[in-house]
Design a protein that fits this description.
alpha+beta; four-stranded mixed sheet; 30% strand; elongated
Length: 81
């Protein structure tokens, strides 16, 4: 790799606000906010709205759309042609 053209790749904590879940990984993303991690070191923290701990697909609370019911309701409302 050529030097001085790539952003720094360093450890960062991503914290899910909704679930209170955090994980440490490496990223090129940075933040001015920091947090002390379980290992005693301080890392930049990036707050995210949704992660695997709070997303309905991963938590099993995903809703299945009732397409048949929607079609029947439409036909009742506007009639069948």
């Amino acid at each position: 790799m050529r030097k001085d053209i790539h952003p720094p790749y360093a450890p960062v904590v991503f914290r899910d606000k909704a679930a209170g879940f955090a994980f440490l990984t490496r990223s090129t993303a940075t933040s001015a906010k920091t947090v002390e991690w379980e290992d005693g070191h301080t890392y930049p923290v990036i707050d995210v709205e949704v992660s695997s701990a709070s997303h309905p697909f991963y938590t099993g609370t995903a809703r299945v759309m009732d397409t048949a019911g929607r079609v029947e309701r439409f036909e009742r409302r506007f009639g069948k042609r």
